[in-house]
Each structure stands twice: as structure tokens, then as C-alpha cells.
């Protein structure tokens, strides 16, 4: 199916989100759509999905002009989207999530549960995953949830599939399997818009590309006629400083120790230390337990046995507030579910962790709130149109900066970053890396979970390699290699 977007424009209060955007998606091709956070990619996707209506311009499918006035109409014209932030129903089964709002109905008007289960299993089998249609979604990992959402799009049999950061939470093996699925979709004459901040993926899987910057198309061509450096230059319109490796700082003495942490079915014998001004990496494949360990240290979950020490003192963390009071904070990889309150303003989000300190007898001191928000808006260069702008309307990069600012306001000693650059553009990623260097230079210690080996190798002093809930090895980054880390992470 062929898609033509001609002179599409869209504005919001104070923002020109899209300005006369043109894009041509050919039949059975993969078209890469790239740009920094805030460039207009998400707005364009929402127009194609019928969520937003353009102020001007035309959309044609197979040379016929269409009006995508709501999501159902968009789906009727064969457009389906896999979004960056999954919308899932935790208490329902995988099958129910796959077919939510799209049930197969028998002639007697009853839901055909058997056929839905069969189709779900077929799609999941094609993805070569061990997920079952009867599994409850709340028991799935982030990566597995993403696979369910991919399955949801595939069962809709769409002719145009929009994949918005589809690999953000997937392992390398799962990414390769997704590539196979994309190739199969092309053979079935499906057309795909592929959105990713991972430019290597764009170069590998796409046939053509379009670069958006500040709501306008700055470049579009065959993928064979461009390069990674040219894409970056077109995306940001400026030179991105190379932050790897991080700036040298003098690492101090041990400040935090985890000793023999154990949680049934998740991890055991977890022992490591963290030093003053150190960036300690945690690396492991999907399902290794790295995130579960950090959630337990922060008090979101409870461990069955083990001890924690901070500045040589045995500490007890039973809930997140205990950790915060000790100077330990945690930035979740699920920023929209656990880090950000999207329906609150940016100002209020920046003050969420400071409500008690900025209040007097249950009355919030608005001047203190504004001062705190202004400080971290400036420090992190958060782009916001006005203070009451809802956090959910920020770009992914600015959402991440808002979550970081919220926790920095508590003046922590240790900050745990779980996939801090997942799903954000190269400019924002560079800014986060640079800021991490500034934090350790100011005396903070950082634990960083990342699935990206270049990020681990470039930013960390040591790396803890986790495999199936066990620490396989703790390595000095200056004395190891990506190959060695990956070998331990694979259980070798």
C-alpha cells in the first residue's frame, strides 16, 4: 500500500509542531523516520493514527485522498501503530491484550475465544518467544510487553505498520527476529514506517528515510545515499560532542555495599560495592534480573535476606522513602509509568519528591516550588512552553530530563539510572552523558543499568555483569572488552 503525505501542518499553543511536511511511503518498503525528540515525529504519527487532525495538507492512500478523523477510521484504512510507550492491561491475558477492542465475533455475536487464542499463539510463535496467549500481562517483563504490542499490531493485518521505537526494550536476539518479521511483512506487500533513535538500525533495515527537525523535513532520500554522520548532522543541525569516554575524576573510597541479597525466583548472592564519584554499570540480557535488583535496593520490592551498608552503617530500606532519606534515588526505565505523572504540570513533576520539604503545615509554598522547578529546568535545559504544560506533552528527552530533575532536587548521594537514554535522541543522549559526568565531578556516585554496551564501555568505571539473577563477574572497564562482557552476560 502506498502512502502520500503532502504539506501537513499542525500547531499547538505556542508551538508549530509540523510545518508543511511531505513524506512518500512506497509499497512493501521500510521508510525510516528520524529526528530529535520534539522534532515532530510523534505528532505526525498521531495524525496518521487519527488522534490529531492536521490544519492543512492532504493524506493519500493508493492515490486516493482520505480523512483519518479518528483511530478507528485510520485502522479501517489499514494503518496500525506500535507505540514507544506500551498501553497494556495488567490483569488481562496476553490474548486479551492482543485483541483488545478488536475481538473476533462469531455469527451468533459471541466472542470467538478459541480463534483469538489460536491467532495469538500463531503470531507469538512467529516471533519465536516463549510467551503464551494465556499468560497474565502483569507477570511479563518490559521486553515481553513490547512483544505483545507488536503482536497486537500484526493480528490487525494492517497494510501500513508504524513502528515507533519497536526495539527499545528488546535484546539483540529479539531485534534480529523483529528484522525477520519486517522482511516477511515486506514480502506480503506491507509498508512500514520505522521510527528509531538507533541510527544503525535505520541504516540496516530501512530502504528510504526522512529526517525531521523542528517540525520540518530537512532531508529525504534512499538509505543507500546517506551515512550515520550525515543523518546525525541533519537531525541536530549542529555538532554533537563525543562524550565517550567520560571525563576523568578521582574515584574515592567505598560508600555503599550490598551483601548477599536474595529474593526468591529473582536473584541470589548479590554482593557488590559502589565508590565515591564512581559510575558503576550493571549489564545483563533481558530477564537477567538487573532491574529487579535495583528496585529492591530502592525499596519498591523487598528482598528475603541480605544486608545494605551506606558509609559503613547498616541501613534498612523497606520503602522508597527510606532510600530517599538516606540519599539514594532510582530512575525507572518506565518513565511514563513509574517516573513521570503525565497529567501533572512540568513544574509539579519537578517538585514531586520535595512536597514535604516545600510545604508548611500541609500548605505548599508555591515560591519554593517555582524556585526548585526553575533551578532544574535551567540546569537540565528542559524545553517547556509554559510552567503549567502537562508533562505528558513533552518530548521523550524532556520527559527524561524532568524525571532526573525531580530526583536531583532531593540532593541525593547515590543515583540509580535504569536505561537513562532509552528511547531518546542522540542530542538528548549526549546531554545525559555529559550531565552524568558533571554529577560525579560534583561528588555523586551513579549506578547505571544499560543494555547498550558502547554506553557501558564509554561511561562506566566498572561493570557488574548479571546472568539469570546471579552476578557472573565484576570487571574494570579499562581492562575488559565488549566481547568479554557479552560472554559473561550469556552465561559463558
TrEMBL record:
Keyword Lipoprotein found: no
Source species of the chain: marine metagenome
Protein name: ABC transporter domain-containing protein
Alphabetized GO MF terms: ATP binding; ATP hydrolysis activity
Membrane topology: Peripheral membrane protein
Pfam name, any one: ABC_tran
Domain ABC transporter: 3-239, 249-492
Main location: membrane
GO cellular component: plasma membrane
SUPFAM superfamilies tied to this protein: P-loop containing nucleoside triphosphate hydrolases
Alphabetical keyword list: ATP-binding, Cell membrane, Membrane, Nucleotide-binding, Repeat, Sugar transport, Translocase, Transport
Subcellular location per the Swiss-Prot or TrEMBL entry: Cell membrane
Record keyword Cell membrane present: yes
CDD domains registered for this protein in UniProt: ABC_Carb_Monos_I (cd03216), ABC_Carb_Monos_II (cd03215)
PROSITE patterns in UniProt: ABC_TRANSPORTER_2 (PS50893)
Amino acid at each position: 500500500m502506498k502512502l502520500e503525505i503532502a504539506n501537513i501542518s499542525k500547531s499547538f499553543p505556542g508551538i508549530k509542531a509540523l510545518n508543511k511536511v511531505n513524506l512518500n511511503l512506497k509499497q512493501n518498503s521500510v521508510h525510516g523516520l528520524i529526528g530529535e525528540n520534539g522534532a515532530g515525529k510523534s505528532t505526525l504519527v498521531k495524525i496518521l493514527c487519527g488522534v490529531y487532525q492536521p490544519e492543512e495538507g492532504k493524506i493519500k492512500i493508493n492515490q486516493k485522498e482520505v480523512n483519518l478523523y479518528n483511530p478507528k477510521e485510520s485502522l479501517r484504512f489499514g494503518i496500525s501503530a506500535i507505540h514507544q510507550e506500551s498501553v497494556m492491561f495488567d490483569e488481562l491475558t496476553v490474548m486479551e491484550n492482543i485483541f483488545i477492542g478488536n475481538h473476533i465475533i462469531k455469527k451468533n455475536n459471541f466472542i470467538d475465544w478459541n480463534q483469538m487464542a489460536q491467532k495469538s499463539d500463531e503470531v507469538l510463535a512467529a516471533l519465536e518467544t516463549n510467551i503464551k496467549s494465556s499468560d497474565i500481562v502483569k507477570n511479563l517483563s518490559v521486553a515481553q510487553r513490547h512483544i505483545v504490542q507488536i503482536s497486537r499490531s500484526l493480528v490487525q493485518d494492517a497494510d501500513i505498520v508504524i513502528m515507533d521505537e519497536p526495539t527499545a526494550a528488546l535484546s539483540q536476539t529479539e531485534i534480529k527476529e523483529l528484522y525477520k518479521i519486517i522482511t516477511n511483512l515486506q514480502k506480503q506487500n506491507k509498508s512500514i514506517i520505522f521510527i528509531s533513535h538507533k541510527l544503525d538500525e535505520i541504516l540496516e533495515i530501512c530502504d528510504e528515510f526522512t529526517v525531521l527537525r523542528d517540525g520540518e523535513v530537512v532531508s529525504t532520500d534512499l538509505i543507500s545515499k546517506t551515512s550515520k554522520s550525515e543523518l546525525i548532522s541533519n537531525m541536530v543541525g549542529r555538532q554533537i560532542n563525543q562524550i565517550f569516554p567520560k571525563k576523568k575524576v578521582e574515584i574515592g573510597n567505598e560508600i555503599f555495599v550490598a551483601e548477599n541479597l536474595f529474593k526468591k525466583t529473582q536473584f541470589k548472592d548479590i554482593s557488590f560495592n559502589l565508590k565515591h564519584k564512581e559510575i558503576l554499570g550493571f549489564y545483563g540480557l533481558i530477564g537477567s534480573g538487573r532491574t529487579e535488583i535495583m528496585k529492591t535496593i530502592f525499596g519498591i520490592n523487598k528482598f528475603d535476606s541480605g544486608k545494605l551498608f551506606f558509609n559503613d552503617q547498616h541501613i534498612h530500606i523497606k520503602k522508597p522513602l527510606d532510600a530517599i532519606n538516606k540519599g539514594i534515588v532510582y530512575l525507572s526505565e518506565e518513565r511514563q509509568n513509574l517516573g513521570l505523572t503525565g497529567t501533572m504540570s512540568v513544574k509539579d513533576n519537578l517538585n514531586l519528591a520535595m512536597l514535604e520539604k516545600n510545604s508548611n503545615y500541609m500548605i505548599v509554598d508555591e515560591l519554593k516550588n517555582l524556585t526548585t522547578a526553575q533551578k532544574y529546568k535551567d540546569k537540565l535545559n528542559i524545553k517547556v512552553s509554559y510552567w503549567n504544560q502537562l508533562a505528558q506533552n513533552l518530548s521523550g528527552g524532556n520527559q527524561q530530563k524532568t524525571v532526573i530533575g525531580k530526583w536531583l532536587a532531593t540532593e541525593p548521594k547515590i543515583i540509580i539510572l535504569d536505561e537513562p537514554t532509552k528511547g531518546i535522541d542522540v542530542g538528548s543522549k549526549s546531554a545525559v552523558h555529559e550531565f552524568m559526568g558533571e554529577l560525579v565531578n560534583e561528588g555523586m556516585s551513579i549506578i547505571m543499568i544499560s543494555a547498550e554496551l558502547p554506553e557501558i564501555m564509554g561511561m562506566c568505571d566498572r561493570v557488574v555483569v548479571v546472568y539469570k539473577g546471579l552476578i557472573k563477574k565484576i570487571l574494570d572497564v579499562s581492562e575488559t572488552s565488549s566481547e568479554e562482557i557479552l560472554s559473561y552476560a550469556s552465561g559463558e
